[in-house]
Amino acid sequence: QFTTEDLTPLCVDLTFPNNGQTDVAIISNISWEVDVNAVGYVLNVGTTPGGNDLVNAIDTGNITTYSFPNNLPQNSTIYINITPYNLLGNAIGCVEQSFTTELFVPECANLLTPLNEEIDVPISTGLSWTNSDHADGYILSVGTTSGGVEIVNAQDVGNINNYAFTENLSDNTTFYVSVIAYNTEGNAVNCNEYSFTTEIVIPECTTLIIPFNNEIDVSVNTSLTWNSVSNASGYTISIGTTPNGSEIINGLDVGNVTTYVPLIDFTDNTMVYVNITPYNSTGNSLSCNTEQFITEDRSIRTPAFFTPNGDEFNQFWKVEDPKKEIKYITIFDRLGKLLYRFKTDSNGWDGTFNGENVPTNDYWYLIEMVDGTIQKAHFTLKR
Known about the structure:
Layout: E1 14-16, E2 29-32, E3 40-46, E4 55-61, E5 65-67, E6 77-86, E7 89-90, E8 97-100, E9 111-113, E10 118-121, E11 127-129, E12 137-143, E13 152-158, E14 162-163, E15 174-183, E16 186-187, E17 194-198, E18 208-210, E19 215-218, E20 224-226, E21 234-240, E22 249-255, E23 259-260, E24 271-280, E25 283-284, E26 291-295, E27 305-306, E28 326-332, E29 338-342, E30 352-353, E31 356-357, E32 361-369, E33 374-381
């Protein structure tokens, strides 16, 4: 008797890459040993042990190499099972083999929100971008010029693909965005810079600077000045003597200036109401407050008394004449004796006659106005 040879094929080993090899190129082909008894090989390849998501039971025939139709995933363990076969059957107990692909710099991420060159983007927008395979994180830069970083300066946001600004962006502004994926091998290269332009929003309200709100004793020939609003293209102004009144100025468009010089003086001792509304191409500011001020009282003011006693206070009797309406002032005693005559641009009367102090008493004055009218009353001198 005799026993014939066993022609059942044997298991084979990878020849390229070697079993357990690392840093294998993602475009790699694979090859394995030849078994003389095999007439063909069945190949399974996957990214998990026993997996076949990359190659599912492909019969390569009597060929011991295989070229993948697509690049292998990077930085991944690839699991391979090669089963030789012939007419007697398949090799038995073949051990799964594996290798690990290389890791290289990630691909560039693409901006998703807002879209590149999108316009009318809300000023409250955030940013989002595509995931880059094998990226450990992303470096974000945002500015208002190409390459600018004044909004976000090369900030490592970690391995997330979105970013929320801490405050609203400026309106009607073009922003430039750079998102650079990175891993331990380095940064993505030759990535595009993206841009978008924010919406135009209605401007905020402004406030008076000169005169300030509720100021009193304001000059009747005052100009009005207010704070500039960054996104305003102009301002309309209304002025009246009642809340929301406009009988002095009614919705005048003064353009993109922040000062207005009234054509005529305001009325003396009057509450003046001012409403200033910034506007731009989107619309007017909403619900802006009306502000007010009180003008000076320029009426003639005659003191009821004065005290020329040498203490340096209230030593002269002087008439206030802001509008220069008085021609002469004449002072008499109770008997009608002329004591002093002067103009309002002088220091006034010091309470003497011919160099001598006159006694404490009431004295009369006569004011001759430029228009020819006369005013007469009395005051008290106290020593």
